[in-house]
Amino acid sequence: MVYRIGKLKLKNRFLLAPMLEPNDVAFRLLCKKAGCGLTYCGMTSPLSRQKMFLDDKPAVQLFGNSAKGIASFIKKYDSKVSLWDFNLGCPSKLSKKMGHGAYLCIDAFAPKGVPPAQKASAGADKGGNIETIEKILKVMCGATKKPVTIKLRKSGKAIEIAKMAEKYVDAIGIHARTASQGYSGDVDYDFALRLKKAVSVPVIYSGNVNEKNVKKILKDFDFVFVGREAIGDPGIFARLNGKKSKIGFRGYLKLAKKYKLFFRQIKYQAMNFTKGVVGAKKLRLGLIGAKSIGDVERVVLNNKLG
Ligand SMILES: Cc1cc2nc3c(=O)[nH]c(=O)nc-3n(C[C@H](O)[C@H](O)[C@H](O)COP(=O)(O)O)c2cc1C
Questions:
Q1: Residue 297 Cα, ligand 1 centroid: separation in angstroms?
Q2: What is the pLDDT of residue 245?
Q3: What is the pLDDT of residues 161-186, one digit of tens each?
Q4: Domain 3-240 in this protein, CATH class
Q5: Where are the domains of the chain?
Q6: CA nearest 134: which of 114, 112, 157, 111?
Q7: Is any atom of ligand 1 closer than 6 Å to the C-beta of 186?
Q8: d(C-alpha 52, C-alpha 66), whole Å
Q9: Measured between alpha carbons, how far is 37 from 277 in angstroms, rounded to an integer?
């Protein structure tokens, strides 16, 4: 069976949710090896000059409060990505201050925000932010022939934004928690369903997706984003596809060294991979004291972590 987001063909409907800290290239490659249909990078500023490693041909998610830098960033990396996504869901304090992420969808933030484009048309219910979002999507679509997606959170404007966006995008992701909920509290499944019914492009559902509920969710939605359940456990994608997997931290370490990832990132992922492992507490204590990649390796080898 082949599934599609625009022209992009996918072999299944299990996507790795965009996640800033966990989704480094080594982790994404392991998810892909395990059978993930499409990996998403964490949010990236189009103004960033940091080198991107894209060997898994991922979806790259951009964020910002204007279209500044987007066209040239897309041109630079276009051949290496599967699709481009725009973040309309980040709930962080920085996003609130800068008027991007989830706050680009909330009019109340437009007058206070820095971007002049938003200020010009700001004011409740004028849809100033919707205009900004539309401009950004036009620029994205003009810069690439690859599919474009957005990822939204639940908000008063989300369905209106989704309806505007479907003129431009090939799929819409929905995390049905509000910005103020962050990552906890109930996910509003009915809200996600209402959004799905309001648009005709495929909808990617996000929020507490796990091995138990995934079948049911995929009866209602086209794709799922696997988020926190995948952290430290790329093998979840094998299991979702009905296969066994032995993907553990050693595989991660090998790739992390290849891409020369920072020690603090490797240590962070080592902690993540202790999830569900027998003796996890002892392992974590060992890892806390690790001061080098060699230390991490010793703790892992001594404790048979993957
Ligand atoms: C550590 C972490 C980082 C995240 N970074 C991003 C991000 O960069 N872009 C984004 O759209 N969502 C981000 N998210 C949200 C996830 O994509 C997902 O929507 C959310 O975690 C809900 O799914 P879950 O309950 O399955 O984890 C992040 C979530 C976590 C836990």
A1: 28
A2: 85
A3: 999 999 999 999 999 999 989 999 99
A4: alpha beta
A5: 3-240, 261-302
A6: 157
A7: no
A8: 21
A9: 26
